[in-house]
Known about the structure:
TIM Barrel; binds beta-D-galactopyranose; Immunoglobulin-like; 18 strands; six-stranded antiparallel β-sheet; 28% helix; eight-stranded parallel β-sheet; alpha/beta
Amino acid sequence: MKHITKVIIGLFFFASMQNVSAQVYSSTGQLLSPTPPMGWMSWNFFGDNINEKDLMEMADALVSSGMKDAGYEYIFIDDGWQGGRDKKNNMIADPVKFPSGIKALAGYVHSKGLKLGIYSDAAQLTCAGYTASLGFEEQDAKTFAQWDVDYLKYDYCNAPSDAITAQVRYKAMADALRKSGREILFGVCEWGGRQPWRWASQIGGQLWRTTDDVRDKWEKKPTEKWGVGVMDILDVNAELNNYAGPGHWNDPDMLITGLYGKKGPSGDGGGVGCNDIEYQSQFSLWAMMNAPLYATNDLRNMNNATKNILLNKDMIAINQDALGKQAERKIKTASWNIFTKPLANGDVAVAILNRGNTDAAYVLNLSAIGLTGKYEWYDVWEHKTISKSNKWNGMVKCHETKVFRLKLLK
Ligand code: GAL
């Protein structure tokens, strides 16, 4: 009988969460995360092999590279920082990796005008086997607030697979963060299995992962058992455009730009690396889809191609546009995907992706994607106006994404 009551309550809870989006506002009435968050995350490059010195150097590099000025704001400590709990059950950082502690690191990051993100998990142990927050939500949220943390990525390893438990556990931490006395962004990371786009915003999340972890590759080969790449993730995330908006974003995982298959977990699962055209495509598509833009490469050693991608302010402006509309995939064939994203000033961003395995010519008539009239075409990667027309034709390299900002001519 007890079990039946629990199931019925659970079903009501689950039903009440479907397709609802509720935004979270700060104490001053501002929407938390009105545009997708931007920053740098430690996981893809370092895995759990992190320490305060490397993270401080990444904060320095975020500033000196010009990325902070371009909008990148967060330094994220992913899994591997934890050193267990003290006698009062307060979470502590690994004293060898973080001898000065997280509060000191937050102070350093804040002194640079940046913010700090941290990681935990809705179970007893995280994905990499470290101490996690189940049963300690309020205590851990208070600890994070006391350390001056600005963002929590909350993972779901070692937790039961059903959606109701996930909603209950995520809500417990979201509530705890709200009570912590500090504004802390909440990123839900259960990889899309329980359709978080239907409930994560309602329980207090500002964004939710939609897929498995991105590996440093273009797409999963049929012979590979696991490891998703840019195209596999695109095909999931592109279909979820109606769920995203200011304060509630689909998160198709981190950028792999500039990793070149060199290091860290992004190299697992067939992550042999991409070429710069493919990295530029991921950046373009992620920006069009209002994804959070988290670089993950070694910011201390970036080549010009990587800087050129991560610092493209025209592309970032499309991602950070105030209207917050995720691009819609208007055309989808085996070789070509065409996306449109309406912008706050009335412009429209258009992306043309060549998924085929050769360079190819393409003709885009704007009428085919529902746009009437004549437009001025601004090439977002060439940084110049290229034509006034109701169509575009040209070559698109293998795996390239062309992006244009279109202004309607009166
Ligand atoms: C995964 C998560 C990754 C990373 C990793 C840490 O579940 O999707 O982004 O955080 O755990 O162990």
